[in-house]
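Researcher: Go.
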Amino acid sequence: MNARNVKKKKLFVASGSRNGLVDSFIRELQEQAKPFEFELEVQDWYHNPSQNMISVLTNQCRGSREGNIAKSDFVAAVFTKNDLLAIGGHQAAQGGTPRDHVVFALGLFLGALGFEARRGLMLCSADGQLPGEIRGLFTACFDAVSENDPNEFDRAVRKAAGDVIRHIYSLPPVTEEGPEIVTQSEMLDREWTRGERAELQENGEVLVHRAQPVELNTGDNAAAQVDRNIRDGVTYVYFFQERDFKNIARLLHRVASANPNENGEPIKTPLLPADLETHLREQIVNQLRINVLPKQGSLEFCIHNAHVNDGARCYVRIPSSNEYVRLCQDAKALEVAKKLKELEVANDVDPIRVFRPTQTFDIYEAKYKSQKDALWAAIVREFRAEPNSSLEKTLRKVCFGEEAP
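Model: Structure:
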């Protein structure tokens, strides 16, 4: 692993008091972080009345050059049985309860980190309960402890530490200097409905606006991943800026015939002809839309979850590179998707088909017949190796919604 490319992440752990569970948890975090490709700094804290709590928490959250303190990327609040017994104001005379300080620290960090709930973690002992007013964050529970013994503590925190490490690994560090830069490999890691870095929601939608299909530049892996997602219910909507019908036909063939396994990896054994036709009729035609635009645009971008307000992510490709910038998310990313989708003539075309007419280029108009014929010829060439006499009829119906002449 190249040390120059290792990402550093900081976790701030707030607890009501110093205890063996927290110490064991931090040790276990550092141990389980070793195989992952990032450097983890863990800073633990419990309230000391002699300290200025606001100052300490602010410095740990935002960082302090004077104190040589790095900013935090995640915050974990620990709720043990002792903390939770202090609910209800029974210890108000002592200046507040440990639980109050932990909840306050959690709220302050989430606010300063942009209110991203996914960066707030709650850790609960097996004999405790989480505060009802802040449920909904990522939660990990320690196993039950039978005796006050360091070995018991280590055993009790092991699973929770693993869950936390995988969650931290799945998210990038907080960046204040500029937008997040994402490599093409990292983009593919995020384009899943399952897995540590997955961003796609179930039955989600991926919108792609490009000059050329990226799936043709990454071997068979990217095409197999797209097909796996389609099989799992994800819809792909492509807007290609160039009428390069050869590459568009190649994309269709690679995705439809990828035959991925459950992990989205390409299988060398090709689909049986009957299975390929079934896949075209049942999944491809329903969950793959290809729109062709008349000229190249100025930006290439991809939007994950392009159908919802909560969870949409817009990534813009850096020109002449295989890196992306995360431009916006949620409502703003959804607005970008809606603007592009306005170019579609209709989402519910009848009959349903892969290749869709757009406001600026309707491939079904008579004046574009020669270009439609060129696209069809390219599709036939790509699928020619499939030994099935009825495949051409299926392709015509799936691609254009037409019966074969």
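Model: Confidence is low (pLDDT under 50) at residues 1-5, 84-98.
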